[in-house]
Design a protein that fits this description.
The complex is a heterodimer of chains A (140) and B (449). Chain A is of the alpha/beta class. Chain A contains five helices and six strands, in the order αββαβααβαββ. Chain A has a six-stranded mixed beta sheet with strand order 2-6-1-5-3-4. In chain A, 33% of the residues are buried. The chains are: A alpha/beta (140), B mainly beta (449). At the A-B interface, helix 2 and helix 4 of A face strand 2, strand 4, strand 5, strand 6 and strand 16 of B.
C-alpha cells in the first residue's frame, strides 16, 4: 500500500509540467509604440523573432525576464510553449548566427525600466506591478 | 587544437555560469558554445558506426562569436570539431562565418560560409542540446551509420561522406519573413555558391572493407585506398527553403531544396581484378584515371512540425535524385566494363515526437525509413547496396540544469543491404553473414552556454 502510494506520487510528479506556481503576465511596451492592442498571432511572431519592426518601421526590441514564475506565465499565456522548447527555437537562430541573443532582465522592476527607456521595446511583467511608466498592451 | 577549444569553452562556461549570466559577452561580442561527449554500443561489430562494438569516439565541440555592428548589420562565425569514429577527422573547422545585412523584415542578405537548409534541422544538426534525440533520422539527415547504405559507392570510394555534402556552402543568400496576418507568415531562404569538400581517406577505406565483406566478386583488395589524388571540382551548390507558419497555432510546414553539381577526378592506386568463379578478370590498372561527373545530386525535403506546450511532433519526407557518369580509360580497354551513367532516386521519411514531462525530463523518438530505387541500376556496378532501411529510435533526455543535459537512446535497425540475391549466396559460401537486424545504444552529455 505504501509502495503504491509512493509510486503514485512519483508518477504524478512525472506527469505534471510547469510545477512552479505561475503568476499572470501582462504585456508592456515603450510609450513610443503606437499600437494599444496586438493579435495573439502578432505576439507569437514578435517574441519568436520573426516580426522585427513595428508598422512605422521602428525596430522591435524584445526583452525577456529571468524570474521563472513570470517568464513561465508569459510563455503559457501568450506563446503556448514550454520554456525548453522556446529556448530551443531561439537557440536554433543563435547557434546559426542568424540573430543576436535577445535582451534579458532580472525582474519586473528592471523590465519596466528597460521597456520605458528603450524605443520600440516590448516585454512583460507580472500583474499587480505598477505599470504607469509604460504602455499596457492588450491582446485580442 | 581541439583540446584548446574544449578548454576555452569549459573555462568560459565555468566563468559565465558562475556569474549566472545567460547572454555572454566578451569585448562586445556575444559568445556561445557547447561540448558533447557520447558513448556508442552496438551488437553489430561489422556494420555499425565504428569497427568496434562500443566506442567513446563520438564528440562534438563548438564555439561561436557574433556582433551586431549596427541595427541592420551583423557578423558572426562558429568553430566546430566533430569526432565520429573514422568518419570525421576531429579537426577544428569553421562551421559557418558570414555577414548579414537586414534591409527589411522581408529581405536580408548573407554572404560568406553559410549553413544551408535541408529539412527542419540540417542547419543545427550538430547542436545536440536543441533536440531530444542524439541522432537525427538518417532517412533524411544522412550522417554516419548508414553511410555505406545511402551514400553513393563512388562518393564513398572517393572519400566523400553523406554528411560532408550537407554542411555549409560558400556564397551569398537572400532571406526574409513575409507577414501574412491571420494567414500566418512565410519564412524563406535562397542561396547560391560553391562548397569546400575535402576527401576523407577513412571513408574510402571503410567502403572497401564493406566490399570485401559483402561482394566476394571483388576480392583483390589490400589495406588502403583504391583511388588517390582526389581532385574535387564543384560547379555549383544552391539551396533554398520556404516555410509557412500556418493559421493553426504551433503548426508550420514547408519544403527545402538543395542541389550540387561537381566532378571528382582520381587515379587508381592499385591493380584491381574480379575473382569470377576462380578466374581472375582484370578491371582497373594502377594509374588509371577515373573521373566521376555528378551532374545532379538533388534533394527535396517536405517538412511538418507541430509544437504545443510540452509536445512536439514532426514528420519529413526526402526525395533524392542522382545523376552521374563515369569516365575512365578502363572502359576504352574493355567496353564490357563501360558504365554509361546512373539515374537513380531514393526516398526517406520519418515521423517522430517528444514530450517534456517536467522541467528536467523529456521522452522522444521516431520511426525512420529509407528506400533506394535500385531497379534502374540493377545491371550497373554502381548500384547502391541497399533497398530499404528502417530505424526505430527511443530517447530520454534529462536536464541537470539549464546548461547541462544527459541523453540515453536506443535504436533498432532493420534493413536489407544487398540488391542481388547472388551476393547473399556468395556470402554464404564464404561463411559470412550480414545481420539484417541489430541494435545500437548511445549515451551523451552536453554542456552549453
Amino acid at each position: 500500500m505504501k509502495t503504491k502510494a509512493i509510486a503514485a506520487v512519483m508518477i504524478a510528479i512525472l506527469f505534471v509540467p510547469f510545477l512552479s506556481m505561475a503568476e499572470d503576465a501582462i504585456l508592456i511596451g515603450n510609450p513610443s509604440i503606437k499600437k494599444n492592442t496586438l493579435t495573439k498571432k502578432d505576439v507569437i511572431k514578435i517574441f519568436l523573432g520573426k516580426k522585427i519592426t513595428w508598422d512605422d518601421k521602428t525596430k522591435i526590441v524584445i526583452v525577456f525576464q529571468k524570474e521563472p514564475a513570470v517568464h513561465n506565465a508569459f510563455l503559457k499565456k501568450y506563446i503556448h510553449q514550454s520554456p525548453s522548447m522556446f529556448d530551443n527555437l531561439w537557440n536554433r537562430q543563435i547557434f546559426t548566427g542568424k540573430v543576436a541573443y535577445p535582451e534579458y532582465v532580472q525582474n519586473d522592476q528592471e523590465m519596466i525600466k528597460f521597456v520605458k527607456e528603450t524605443e520600440g521595446a516590448i516585454g512583460y511583467a507580472s500583474a499587480g506591478t505598477d505599470l504607469n511608466a509604460v504602455k499596457t498592451i492588450r491582446v485580442e | 587544437m581541439r583540446k584548446a577549444l574544449i578548454l576555452l569553452i569549459g573555462g568560459l562556461a565555468t566563468l559565465f555560469s558562475a556569474a549566472q549570466s545567460i547572454a555572454y559577452e566578451f569585448v562586445g561580442m556575444d559568445i556561445h558554445g557547447f561540448v558533447s561527449q557520447g558513448y556508442l554500443l552496438s551488437d553489430d561489430s561489422d556494420l555499425s558506426i565504428d569497427s568496434e562494438e562500443n566506442s567513446f569516439a563520438y564528440s562534438e565541440t563548438g564555439i561561436n562569436f557574433g556582433k551586431e555592428l549596427n541595427d541592420r548589420l551583423r557578423i558572426g562565425f562558429q568553430f566546430f570539431a566533430k569526432n565520429f569514429g573514422d568518419l570525421s577527422e576531429n579537426t577544428v573547422k569553421i562551421d559557418w562565418a558570414y555577414a548579414d545585412y537586414r534591409f527589411h523584415e522581408m529581405l536580408g542578405i548573407r554572404f560568406g560560409q553559410i549553413k544551408f537548409p535541408h529539412g527542419l534541422y540540417n542547419e543545427v544538426r550538430d547542436i545536440d542540446m536543441l533536440r531530444t534525440t542524439v541522432f537525427l533520422p538518417d532517412s533524411v539527415y544522412q550522417e554516419a551509420s548508414y553511410d555505406l547504405y545511402v551514400n553513393d559507392i563512388f562518393l564513398s570510394l572517393q572519400g566523400i561522406s553523406s554528411r560532408d555534402l550537407y554542411l555549409s556552402l560558400q556564397g551569398v543568400g537572400l532571406y526574409g519573413y513575409l507577414d501574412l496576418g491571420m494567414i500566418g507568415g512565410l519564412t524563406y531562404q535562397a542561396m547560391y555558391g560553391t562548397q569546400n569538400l575535402k576527401p576523407n581517406s577513412a571513408i574510402s577505406t571503410r567502403v572497401l572493407d564493406y566490399f570485401e565483406l559483402v561482394t566476394p566478386f571483388l576480392s583483390i583488395f589490400d589495406n588502403g585506398n583504391l583511388v588517390e589524388n582526389n581532385d574535387i571540382n564543384v560547379d555549383h551548390r544552391y539551396a533554398g527553403s520556404l516555410f509557412w507558419d500556418t493559421p493553426l497555432e504551433g503548426l508550420r510546414m514547408g519544403a527545402s531544396l538543395d542541389n550540387l553539381k561537381m566532378s571528382v577526378s582520381s587515379s587508381v592506386s592499385k591493380d584491381v581484378a574480379i575473382d569470377f568463379n576462380g578466374v581472375e578478370v582484370p578491371m582497373l590498372n594502377e594509374g588509371d584515371s577515373v573521373r566521376v561527373n555528378y551532374d545532379k545530386l538533388e534533394n527535396w525535403v517536405f517538412s511538418l512540425e507541430y509544437i504545443w506546450n510540452n509536445l512536439v511532433l514532426m514528420a519529413e519526407y526526402l526525395l533524392a535524385a542522382k545523376e552521374y557518369n563515369v569516365e575512365t580509360v578502363a572502359f576504352e580497354r574493355d567496353p564490357l566494363l563501360d558504365h554509361a551513367g546512373t539515374d537513380t532516386t531514393s526516398t526517406g521519411w520519418y515521423v517522430g515526437g517528444a514530450y517534456r514531462f517536467t522541467n528536467w525530463f523529456e521522452l522522444g523518438g521516431y520511426y525512420s525509413k529509407a528506400e533506394n530505387d535500385a531497379d534502374k541500376s540493377i545491371t550497373n556496378f554502381s548500384a547502391n547496396f541497399f533497398t530499404e532501411f528502417d530505424d526505430i529510435c527511443a530517447a530520454a533526455r534529462f536536464d541537470v540544469n539549464k546548461f547541462w543535459s544527459i541523453k540515453l537512446e536506443a535504436h533498432n535497425f532493420r534493413g536489407s543491404y544487398l540488391a542481388f540475391d547472388s551476393f547473399l549466396d556468395a556470402l554464404e559460401k564464404r561463411n559470412r553473414t550480414i545481420e539484417e537486424e541489430w541494435y545500437m545504444y548511445t549515451a551523451k552529455m552536453t554542456v552549453s552556454f
